[in-house]
Write a structure and sequence with these properties.
The chain is an alpha/beta fold. An eight-stranded mixed β-sheet has the order 1-19-15-18-17-16-7-8. Strands 2, 3, 11, 12, 13, 14 and 20 form a seven-stranded mixed β-sheet that branches. Helix 5 packs parallel to helix 16 and helix 5 packs parallel to helix 23. It starts with a helix and ends in a 7-residue tail after the last helix. The structure holds flavin-adenine dinucleotide. The site of flavin-adenine dinucleotide has 38 residues, from helix 5, strand 6, strand 12, strand 15 and strand 19.
Length: 630
């Protein structure tokens, strides 16, 4: 195995920092070439993404991002160590509304508040990160005078179940999802010129081996010849071939409903073993395949949940999955849903990004210095962790920590749009049953790493665009290009610098049994890894995968941004772990009850890990606020 030096670990740091500091004006965005770094040095200009503070402009920061160092320590001290903080110094600031959390939901709450109480309402939004958008985070890279965008968290809008509210919201912001869909050639590698592929690594499988034209999770995605190339036992390969070829059905004697109930009571790996006849090493190939999609290890999911998505074995239980999970409506921006967050901020505080619209949002210049100005009706305060929210005397006092000091402001109303698990610690006033219900929301951890590579030469030599890596930390890799929305253009066939997205979650150890314990164990692994650990993993994988095709791992990686989201997807109820609650009795319904002048938003309140849920819950939270004076 290569040493750190051979992998370019140490030379990479200065390069990474340099790329971060570089920048462009909006004019140079489209058609980024693959100029060498020396040329990039010469072409670097003075501003980043239009910000006046190139090195401080959050979207351009690389290294450990997402829940970045410095953003969560105070919340963890409060929630995990029960730490008390000094009494807050009261600021001379009083607002109509204080929102906790500047994710899509918190920003939407501010929007709905203006609609309900007037656009002159004084609003303060507090956010613990150094950027807004919550999970909807923008990653910007600059090289050779051009900008490459990628998503740092939320990928897209999936509009199959938008409510009327959400449609109205989109219309209000000028977002035409159908038009956006047509401007998107990117499809996670599925409709690109190359087939799906899998990479098997030496540490796990005894050999570094790329198999192109192989997708074990898709109907028809694994021919016998391709299965023969998978480096597992002969028996394992034979069991896979048998499963894909089977046309019989199982569990017929049960009848349809009883069979479905039964399939909801066993895990998918259990099904593969008992009814699919797979060996353990063949089953292990599937363990991580839904890390990105569901934020869960396969053993946390029921057979029914996975088979309905068209995973192998669906034919054994008579399911007709058709196009299955690939056939759904999706719209994307080149920075994921960060553009949606930016559209909202530009509406709430126009001075931050004058002249911004849905048509130019991906390229719009954002001046973060304008976010928090006393003369404006709406203020957005970053790097501010709320540690206490209490209601007394017709007002709500909100305390937060910023720059190491605890301070407080007063509000007529407060919307808590933050993760639900922190709320019982912020707001001990809430009834015990409500606090208990909030603790049910154990979110799944996810990371999304962007690796800017110099060009796609090695990928083109190998004939790959997306790769599943069943043995590695970040299981799913794909190039991110071909999304031409919001004014940005990056053709799907561009061969220059591109962000390789490495996406998924750390697998929990076998000792973690329940879903929640699995999430907690994955989170502990995630938070225990340093940037250097992630960087070493990135370099090791890209060297093994692309090295044989000429990728020089010490020179061809231009930047690495690891977005880690220890509290990622909102908990959605799963067959194996959650009850069938009567209406009104599910934990999220108990958790989101209004409490006087305090109401509860966030996608957690909908038990649904979608942007539409974040918006719907904001609407409800604002409509529940009492109208009386305060
Ligand atoms: C990696 C990833 C990919 C995703 N992809 C998709 C997708 O493709 N499509 C989709 O629809 N959904 C996706 N989601 C789900 C996503 O959670 C929702 O779409 C939506 O963005 C949630 O918004 P929110 O405002 O409810 O929560 P969040 O985005 O979590 O925002 C809450 C904010 O509150 C802040 N906060 C927490 N505690 C405090 C405190 N004490 N003080 C101050 N601030 C605090 C948090 O830091 C955060 O910024 C994805 C999620 C992740 C993590």
């Amino acid at each position: 195995m290569k040493s750190d030096k051979e992998l370019g670990m140490h030379t990479g740091i200065s390069r990474r920092d340099f790329v971060q500091g570089m920048a462009v004006g909006v004019a140079g965005v489209a058609g980024m070439g693959s100029a060498p770094l020396s040329q990039a040095v010469a072409e670097a200009s003075a501003t980043a993404g239009g910000s006046s503070h190139a090195n401080d402009y959050p979207p351009s920061k690389t290294g450990l991002r997402g829940s970045h160092p410095g953003s969560y320590e105070n919340a963890h001290a409060l929630a995990l160590e029960g730490k008390g903080f000094p009494e807050a110094r009261a600021l001379d600031e009083r607002y109509d509304l204080v929102v906790v959390g500047a994710g899509i939901s918190g920003l939407a709450a501010a929007h709905y508040y203006q609609q309900r109480f007037g656009s002159d309402a004084r609003i303060l939004i507090l956010e613990n990160h150094d950027d807004f958008g919550g999970h909807a985070r923008r990653n910007e890279f600059h090289q050779a005078g051009n900008m490459r965008l990628s998503m740092g968290g939320v990928h897209n809008l999936e509009w199959w179940n938008f409510s009327d509210n959400v449609w109205a919201f989109m219309k209000d912001f000028g977002i035409d999802v159908q038009a956006m869909r047509e401007q998107r050639d990117f499809a996670y590698g599925r409709t690109a010129k190359y087939d799906s592929s899998m990479w098997f690594d030496k540490e796990t499988f005894g050999v570094d081996k790329l198999v192109t034209g192989l997708a074990i999770d898709v109907p028809g995605g694994a021919s016998d010849a391709k299965i023969d190339e998978i480096p597992i036992s002969e028996e394992g390969r034979a069991s896979l071939k048998r499963l894909y070829a089977r046309t019989d059905t199982v569990l017929d004697e049960m009848g349809e409903q009883a069979r479905e109930d039964y399939l909801r009571s066993i895990s998918y790996p259990e099904f593969l073993k008992t009814y699919g006849g797979l060996t353990d090493d063949a089953i292990a190939l599937f363990n991580k395949l839904l890390h990105g999609g569901w934020g869960a290890e396969m053993r946390a999911l029921s057979a029914q949940e996975v088979l309905e998505e068209g995973f192998p074995g669906y034919q054994l239980v008579g399911l007709d999955v058709g196009e299955g999970r690939w056939d759904y409506p999706v719209a994307m921006w080149p920075d994921g849903n960060a553009s949606l967050a930016r559209l909202q901020v530009a509406r709430l505080i126009p001075e931050v990004a004058p002249g911004t619209s849905a048509e130019n949002i991906a390229l719009a210049s954002f001046d973060y210095d304008q976010l928090d100005k006393p003369e404006r009706a709406v203020r957005l305060r970053l790097s501010s962790t709320v540690v206490n929210v209490s209601e007394a005397n017709d007002a709500v006092a909100v305390s937060y920590i910023r720059d190491g000091e605890v301070v407080s402001v007063q509000a007529r109303h407060t919307v808590l749009a933050c993760y639900h698990v922190i709320i019982p610690h912020l707001c001990p006033q809430l009834p015990a049953a409500q606090r208990e219900a909030m603790k049910y929301q154990v979110k799944s951890p996810l990371f999304l790493t962007n690796v800017l590579i110099r060009n796609t030469d090695a990928l083109d030599v190998l004939g790959i665009d997306s790769v599943r890596c069943p043995g590695r930390l970040m299981e799913n890799i794909f190039t991110f290009r071909g999304i031409n929305t919001g004014g940005y253009v990056h053709p799907i066939d561009d061969t220059g610098a591109v962000a390789l997205v490495m996406w998924g979650m750390p697998s929990p150890p076998d000792s973690a049994i329940t879903r929640d314990d699995q999430h907690r164990a994955s989170r502990a692994i995630m938070l225990g890894l340093s940037f250097e650990d992630y960087e070493r993993e990135v370099r090791r994988v890209l060297d093994g995968l692309l090295g044989p095709a000429g990728f020089d791992v010490a020179n061809d990686i231009l930047a690495i941004t690891v977005n880690r989201w220890p509290h990622g997807y909102s908990l959605e109820y799963l067959d194996l772990w959650d009850d069938d609650w009567a209406p009104g009795e599910a934990p999220h319904e108990i958790a989101r009850q209004p409490f006087g002048r305090i109401t509860i938003a966030n996608a957690d309140a909908g038990a649904s890990a979608y942007t539409q849920a974040a918006i719907d819950e904001a609407f409800r939270a604002v409509s529940e606020l009492p109208a009386g004076p305060g």
